[in-house]
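Subgroup meeting minutes
Present: P.N., E.W., G.H.
Scribe: E.W.

1. P.N. recapped why we're keeping a running log of single-chain structure predictions: easier to compare across weeks, and new members can see raw inputs and outputs side by side.
2. G.H. added today's entry (977 aa).
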Amino acid sequence: MSEGRITRGRLAIVVTITVWACYLTYTVIQQFIAGHAYTVKLAIEAIVYMLVVTGLAASAIAYLITRIGYFYRARGHQRSPRIMLDEFIGGKTPSVTVLVPSYQEDERTNRTTLLSAALQEYPGLRVTLLIDDPRQPKTRSARDMLLAARALPAMIDGELRVPYQRVSAAYTSFDEQVRLRGGHLVTLEDMRRLAAEYRFAADWLYDLGARQEIVDHTDTFFVEHILHPLAADLGQISGALNTGADEHATLPLARMNQLHKRLLAIFDVTVTSFERKKYVSLSHEPNKAMNLNSYIGLMGGAYQEVGTPLGTALVTAGPNRADLVVPDPDYVLTLDADSVLLPEYALRLVHLLEQGAYERHAVAQTPYSAYPGSATRIERISGATTDIQYIVHQGMTHYGATFWVGANAVLRKKALNQICEVSYEGDWEIKRYIQDRTVIEDTESTIDLGVHGWSLHNYPERLAYSATPPDFGSLAIQRQRWANGGLLILSRLKDQFRAKSQRSDKNRFGEYFLRVNYMASIFWSSVCLLIMLAYPFNAELLNPILLLVSVPYFFMMAADLKALGYKRSDMLRIYGFNLILLPVNMSGSIASLLQLLTGEKSQFKRTPKVRDRTTAATSYLLLPLALIVFCVYTVWRDVQLGQWNNLVFATLNLTLSAYAMIAFVGPGNTIVDLLTHMRDWLVRPVAPKRSRRSRSAKKTPAAQTPKAPATGDWAQVLHYRQEHGATAGQVTVRLQRTDSGDWTTDRAKSSSSRAHLFEEFSFFTVFQPVYHMVNGHVVGYEALTRFADGSNPRDSLAAAAQRGVQVALDAALLQAAVKSSAALPNGTWLAVNVSADLLARPHELAPLLAGSRRPLIVEVGAADPAGLAQLGGDIRIAVDDRGSGYDTLALIESQRPAVLKLDMATLPGLENQTARQAAVRALVEFAQQHGCTVIAEGIETAAQRDALVACGVPYGQGFYLGKPVPVERVLSGVGGW
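Output recorded in log:
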């Protein structure tokens, strides 16, 4: 990096700050001391204008500062020599999994990305395509994309298996020959055979490039900058090995092993796919972050596919029973499906993170660059802004202000585990490593890592490239997403500030200035520019000296564009480009503010990746046109009033915004998109009318339908159980309400005209095993209810109580549990929960319990179980403990229950607190003296189980021992030890 560019960069910073300070000083003196702002309006105008100038100057200064940091880093960078990387490959390398989140991507795009990931020079790589397409496509093209995405990983894996098997066999043969020769001798023939393998690998890569479908410049880049350079490098090594053999020189054994392992590392890869939407137990939130989180949350586990009424779920299982085993890697490499990596990306970044100086770095990345050779003007200018951002991100690293850029990154799995947040959707545990509260999820995760003391690093080489949207419609969707979210997480910087202070780390102004600018500058720059464009400020405020505030910024950006391979004049095109994007940026910023006020997440809009043009939103077309019209008016007004300073600014904005609309959007595309939106507004689709047959079917009297079996006299409940299909085991309870609001059992009135009067509860029963904790045998099961909408059972029961139908619903839950328990293993008992209201009606409860084929334990909680004496049969009572003091002892003595359920509140700290252990031991002894058995609930760790056994508690249940599962999975052992 030349010293001249650094010197000019420093001068630009000095000039910008000096001119800004001089302007503010002059304006304050002129407007407030000299008294030119003699009215409230003029005073407000002066203050607002100075704030606008300050905001724009701050963004300009931030850019000038970061480019200086970029120059320093580029000048001081020393890349690791290849011999060090070969030594790294030759040793024990950390494991890496590459995750490629994909949503309705073209097969060619997915193939290019997966191949660039699979051909990383890293041994034992695992590449997984995370398919997020809808599982029920609505169009033929969507179906074809889904089928292609499913078939692609196996196809690529099969392609790479051919060269891998050959080079692997060659290395095995070499190793055997060396051992036969005493374990140290390398021959000339070994050199030539290795050269032949390198030549084979080079030819294979050239052939792969020849078979690549060339559609646009991204395909050309993949062949010419990834496949061909790697092939040429391998071919050069092949030639060097042959030349050495011709000169009767042999390499040391260690170096021969390194070269063999390097060749293996290129092809030693497993390519798979995964679809989170196949499983109801994983989040289906429509964003990239949760697609990644769903798979990362499974890492290190073995899972079995279990059919539930809501669909297939993944539950923890032993390795021998698992349908899915997900390795737990040391590093996770995330890669967007429209991006590619150069072959050394993973190797160089993991090698860096393994150095002692980087042990507290959680993320290493190379901010992506734009593909060179764009076909359209808007794609080229968009790519120019991307490449400028590369400079910004590299410079921010110099000041410790790095942000994770989500298109590609190597993530330390240990760091991800530390920032993991666990929540629940219904009964399913959802893990969040990458935050999805905003649509710029990687930015908030950067703050999370910083709070936990982790750093981030931008590797100062261009090793990753990503596509830019080829048309204005798709670009607007992307940029609107980028503009959303920064304001929401801006306040979280204080958390990082506080955490660094607690660790006695120094908080630097430069870091936080650049972080604030990165997250909020889109908002304040857009607002400031709109104010300057829209409001006719006092002419005295428009001082010509203001030009010197922006001139250094534009000159330096023009120089950077030239150095990046663009034209200096592209700086003006970028300015016009940003003018027509003002509505897009403001839309994203407003969405941030709305989310801040309402707390509701903004919708994640994926950037379309299609060959056809994406229609731009009406507002994104009309507002730029309105801006052009306003600029015309401003020019005319300035000429009339002789405001020549403002005329220059207005003329520049008019010229560049008009050029941007013509060059980047196009008059034809604008007209077509507006007409398309007008047609969609005028012509509304009409839903097809139902046939007479369907209407007459709805009017069939309900009495003609098969009547559900009556149970006792809780005739309010009509339950229907599905025995087959996706909802097998699910029970639907339909409770009918009269016009007056009362609940009735009159089914003859359930006509279609009164269908809205039905309240429906859909649920299914799961069973949690109760273990004898000494011998590990299952002695019984507790029946639990899961509602089909994923809601908490307490909420559904509370809703039924508010409507006065809790007894009917509780009876339905109990009957479903008793009926489902028929399939449980023989020799086990069943525990069911009964509400106090149903318990008070023994004449209704008795017929329900009589249907059980196994011993019953009725859990009454805190209710009075006196009425159970009327039920008879093999029914035992279970009560909840009331703490380990007198109340529980009195309960056991007065009510003589058969079972005492030890609440989970007793367990925390039990393994370490001897006083609590003594109290539990005394409670168990007292219970045994009164014929009461103690069962501990909520056991989550082995330490808790062992402590309970030591205290004499014989039985237990909890997630550690076994999770609740549907009855059809009980016999297969799912959910147990």
